[in-house]
## 1
Amino acid sequence: MKELRDATDKQPLRCMLTSPDEAQLLGMLLKLIGAKNTLEVGVYTGYSLLATALALPDDGKVLAMDIKREYYEIGLPMIKKAGVAHKVDFREGPALPMLDRLLEDEKKHGSFDFAFVDADKDNYLNYHERLVRLVRPGGVIGYDNTLWCGTVAADTDAVAAGGAGARVLAYYRHFVLELNASLAADPRVEICHLTIGDGLTLCRRIK
């Protein structure tokens, strides 16, 4: 895990790395719920993916989706070194069509124990509508970056002030706010919104 953090720290988009304490929490959660079959939307260099694979039993599987395999390749040597590459099914491309293909098979409905999303924020709600059908009742979906650098609690004008980075925060803030409100009102899940990392929302499917 440390080797992968160090390798990611050399990348221009190193800020996308899941925090170590969040990765540790996810690993413990997977063990607590006895997860065996999991999904990950948004892989980057594979840090949270490695944490997941390490927590799964030897015959467990994580279906991982990302639009760029080149970032996954950065972490792949560490995943292999950890002895968990056989648990990972990496698929390159947009996640929504892949999730739709899974849903075409009714046997896949409710077949996953856990899903973790750290991807394009403007599609989080689209991911949710699919994942809540793919994850079993009692299973968990985790959404990363749900505090969005604290901007969800900030004044809109204050968020928009600043350079290009502030404009990116302001643009995606709307989608994160929409997600947070929707999850809080969704009768299919019960949620726990944590301040770990950049905000992690855990949704336990209840029906």
## 2
Amino acid sequence: MANEVILLDFWPSMFGMRTRIALREKGIEFEYRDEDLWNKSPLLLETNPVHKKIPVLIHNGKPVCESTIQVQYIDEVWSDKNPILPSDPYQRAQARFWVDFIDKKMYDAQRKVWGTKGEEQETGKKEFIELLKTLESELGENTYFGGDDFGYVDIGLIGFYSWFHAYEKYGNLNIESECPKLIAWAKTCMQRESVAKSLPDSEKVIEFVTEIRKKFMLE
């Protein structure tokens, strides 16, 4: 059966980046379609009628929604190359735990760093750095979160790295001084072709964030 793979995405989305990386780790050719989130395409609304959000992975006409589910789906469908989730059930459960932690905590915290002012921003900055330190502690002395192998937790977190310069600019932070091992991990991830091709340039992200801040009158 032919594999027709389409990804409905939005270039600065750290969630869409996960799916891009997973597909490239597996060597899967896919058609990338960048969505206008202020004018969503009929295909996006049709394939994700519940949340109406990107990313949507369409495999042979069948949509799969939510980035973490997409990454697991990709790992199961194309299981013959570059496993993403560990084979051991306990290690697999731990990897899912940490990506769930990232999903529940990181987005809201990082949003406060660049998208708020005053006391709310200060609280958000502290919360964000604490989250990064928790993740850095889990990484330990390992190359990747899965030890020597790039995998599910790395894919779950690395997209946020493309936003780090924006966090630093608007949050007046120095993330490397706070979490040097996490930055070293990110730089190692960026050496992978799948990651380098999937993450946007950080300066482009800063420009995007600047426009959003102006729209919400934070500038």
## 3
Amino acid sequence: MAAKADENEYFVREIERNDGCALKVKQCFLGDVGCVVWDAAIVLAKYLETKQFYDPSSGVNVWSGRTVLELGAGTGVVGLMAATLGAQVIVTDLEDLQTLLKVNIQENEALISSGSITAKVLKWGEDVSEFLPSPDYVLMADCIYYEESIVPLVESLKLLCGPETCIVCCYEQRTEGVNPEVERQFFELLQQNFCCEEIPSEKQDPEFSSPDIHILHIRRKA
């Protein structure tokens, strides 16, 4: 059955692709963190179509046929961008965000030709066997904010990622409250098993980037 969204509960945000088509992403007026397209999600979505990954004029398309898993997908904007570029995508989040994910997938189906996208429940720290073998890419936008979620998130990354998996992590550095400590704990725990490479701003989308928003490529240590 088609996912149904009450029109009064949502407003639509458009994210334009480089080819002029726009992803239309519904967001909730009310709700918690998952219901809004965060800036980091847009920065990451636009990064996926930078020339190093996707350049139709020279025939480059890193995403074509690749398997991609998005964690903490929220509205699904990042996974949707990957699917429109030709990736085979699974967007994941908690049970209560599945309706919003499915609505947004339906809204953008016309933009997806060679790629595919499905929404599934994945609770960090729990069984990931249905998402194996390991995907080529794991995408994460602004997933580092709750202290209690750090250990399960890193556990999920360890279970999901094989030696060839590249995690592309985008997050907004926040200086208030517990945020700096949560970030520190996350990277300390992560670096026991993974190495991180920060992507310089010149490799990001020139318009959709910000000094506060960081993009990292994260891989398992050999």
